[in-house]
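TASK: fixed-backbone design
INPUT:
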């Protein structure tokens, strides 16, 4: 996702499906719902590091090879970081809650990256977006 000036948005989410079964499709719908909420909540948000969180949904065809969150590629020109988040296999009573928790962990990982690269001490504006998404 990009802003009107063509730069990446401060925060965006996506998904990689490990299968095409009903469970994976239910996760895809949950990620889509979260994505729409992120788009609405990030309106006008500016950040020194732009973050794209991609949820990896475990499946038969493409099983997750990691757990938790990890940084991926970084585009220095756009200050745009990809963070991967592995959705745990198994039953999830509340998919949205699982995704928001992983999103929060991913932003923590992005903050660590930003500090280590001297980009920013924190990502308070993105953290505020994520906190606004937390179910009450």
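OUTPUT:
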């Amino acid at each position: 996702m990009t802003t009107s000036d063509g730069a990446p948005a401060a925060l965006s989410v996506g998904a990689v499906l490990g299968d095409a079964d009903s469970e994976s499709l239910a996760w895809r719908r949950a990620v889509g719902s979260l994505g729409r909420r992120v788009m609405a909540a990030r309106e006008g948000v500016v950040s020194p590091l732009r973050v794209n969180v991609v949820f990896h949904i475990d499946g038969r065809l493409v099983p997750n090879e990691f757990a938790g969150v990890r940084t991926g590629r970084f585009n220095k020109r756009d200050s745009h970081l990809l963070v991967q988040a592995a959705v745990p296999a198994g039953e999830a009573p509340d998919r949205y809650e699982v995704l928001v928790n992983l999103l929060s962990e991913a932003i923590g990982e992005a903050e660590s990256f930003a500090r280590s690269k001297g980009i920013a001490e924190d990502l308070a504006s993105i953290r505020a977006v994520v906190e606004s998404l937390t179910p009450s």
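COMMENT: The chain has a mean pLDDT of 92.
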